[in-house]
Amino acid sequence: MGRGSPRLASFCLNRLTTRVRVRSPPIEHSKPISGGNKSDLSTNTTKAEKKAREVTTKAAWFVAGRRIMIVVDSSQEAKSAVHWALTHTVQRQDTVVLLYVCRSAANQGGEVGDIDQKGTNPRGYEILSSIKNSCQMKKPGLEVEIVSAEGEEKGPTIMGAAKKQGISLLVLATGSGPR
């Protein structure tokens, strides 16, 4: 008779990994002004000039910033997702778009739009405005937009809102928040 060990080996928190995939926009190369052939181009443009052109193209993208959408609700997981995004992905030049998804009435289609205080869902406005204030307190000068979306299912509604807003990065909370 040996000592029995609990069977918790498969449940280890140190094995959890976070997977994030960020895509950068493609770099557009400008065409030469002269109508010369490749040999003319290589003699007129040095490697340093080519490198400088690539750096300024990349720098222009960073100055413009990205649009990062964070899906929020009243759950603690959503607040943790906002905190994670602010500490790990959001930079000064980025714009954060906070999205609140609510169920739509049976006769209405899915709508995405800016939310105001007189909107159809005052609870959603309250949640969004409090999270917006906390974002601006943690990162002063950060541009934060609040958006509300209505739809039957959360997944397609979130993806439709992200496409409509031109989002570069989408942050979702893990866990089952309020439905």
From TrEMBL:
Biased segments, Polar residues type: 36-46
Alphabetical list of InterPro entries matching this protein: Rossmann-like_a/b/a_fold, UspA
Chain ranges of the UspA domain: 66-174
Ranges where the record places region Disordered: 24-50
Protein name: UspA domain-containing protein
